[in-house]
Amino acid sequence: MSFVGKPAPEFTAPAFFPGDTAASDVKSLSLTDYRGKWVVFFWYPLDFTFICPTEILALSDRLDEFEELGAVVIGASTDSVYSHRAWVRTPRTDNGIEGTAYPIIADMTQQIAADYGVLIDGEGIALRGLFIIDPDGVVKHSTINALNVGRNVDEVLRTLQALQSGGLCAANWKPGAKHLSPGS
Predict the structure, then answer these.
(1) Which of 15, 29, 31, 52 is catalytic?
(2) Which CATH superfamily is domain 12-165 in?
(3) What span, in angstroms and rounded, lies between the C-alpha atoms of 56 and 162?
(4) Which sign, positive or negative, has the C-alpha torsion 113, 52, 134, 13?
(5) Does position 19 have pLDDT exceeding 60, yes or no?
(6) Is 52 a catalytic residue?
(7) pTM above 0.90, yes or no
(8) Can you give the pLDDT at residue 131?
């Protein structure tokens, strides 16, 4: 199933918001909360695993670059918000994701993962899916990796910049490069 060019499946779910006070770090998050912004919405299989922290931290460590592009990052897995909280509070040296600075959704019903086509039936976990959603709520990019392959943040940023440029972007296009002209 392809979502590119179609409205992103709407959702409302509990999420852990790192950096908020302990009394309010778990809140409801809806995709519609981010209408008017670019959204990088990504899935990972499980908290407290091996490849997942490399991706989560790579995105978080470059969050300012996404924000400069007017984009927000939202993570998601089928774990609970309490597992997310414990993992964010675990030091990086102990395989934690301390310092993660964006919300992480808890999709314990697995409905959102199913709606986005990343749920592994019978296992209750998600593949490594990533969706770039435009300010109007339309999916402009999707990629889904096998469980054993992490994503490249440079490519996510390059793809976001290419989408925002509005032009025809050739392979390996980078910001500042010329766009292709139809018929050239």
Answers:
(1) 52
(2) Glutaredoxin (3.40.30.10)
(3) 22
(4) positive
(5) yes
(6) yes
(7) yes
(8) 98
